[in-house]
Write a structure and sequence with these properties.
Blueprint (H helix, E strand, L loop, with lengths): L9 H4 L6 E6 L5 E6 L2 E3 L2 E7 L3 H8 L2 E6 L13 E7 L3 H30 L5 E8 L1
Length: 136
Amino acid sequence: MTIPTAAPSPFVAMGDKAFVSLTTFRRKGKGVPTAVWIARDGDTLLVTTPEESGKVKRLRNNSKVELRPCTRSGKVIGDGPPVVGRVEFEDDPMQARYFTDLIRAKYGPEYLLTMFIERLVAKRQKPRVILKITAA
């Protein structure tokens, strides 16, 4: 006899999607969606992004985010309500490395190729941050 396991919450299930539309909010409240990679560590969702990105600036002013499944190009999949979360920046270098490894493991060669292209285009390695997203 197998014991049925509970389905993960809609928030936690976002970590299993290939791409997620992460909406951050400007000071005046207007949402700005961006397609991102996402991984999961327990009940925490993880995103990596360049430190100089607009979403990081917006998140420093307002930690609220909305998440929806999307395509690589950012087209939202389905018409369900967004999942709401709060972002914290991971400051511990060892923990950030662990979270980066989770993202790298999920996306494999695609991650490595994207980071290589980013380095070529920018002519340097862009400093990146890890966004830890918890359910709001």
